[in-house]
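ok trying again, last paste got cut off:
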Amino acid sequence: MKRLTIIVAVLLILSGQLSAQVNGQKKHNNKNMEATTPKKTSDFPVGEENTAYAQYFTGKSWNAPLTSNKDLNVPVNNITFEPGCRNNWHSHTGGQVLIAVGGIGYYQERGKAAVRMKPGDVAEIGQNVEHWHGAAPDSWFSHLAITGNPQTNKNTWLQQVTDREYAEATRK
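nice, full thing came through this time. structure:
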């Protein structure tokens, strides 16, 4: 009887350790999931991870096309950036309009101070103006991106925004 009690006690201890290990793994998996699951910052859809343009971003972004009728000639996408994410310096031959819809982000034209963007702010970007945009270091950020002159608009992707440039631009 004593031997059976010891075996049951050992099994209970082991099952408790296994349960704790499984629960710890679930917590770890949930934490990893939070790091890769985009935060919904507005009423617009977040969309899919922006893998097509990942090479032009530092950090992760998501893209939700909001218009599909090409005859309207006004492509509009909701772009969501994780904290610290920004795109490379780039320009558009047809220009671009950004409308902040959630979180806090930044927009900067080359040679000018960065502009902090919050919901409702609009950035009108002229043709061939080199710029970047992205999230604040501590906030998710979403903006609507409206492409100007879509039939002839071409993006020219340039170098990454360095960590130093980003830190200077986003200093509070």
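cool. The longest helix spans residues 2-36. The chain has a mean pLDDT of 86.
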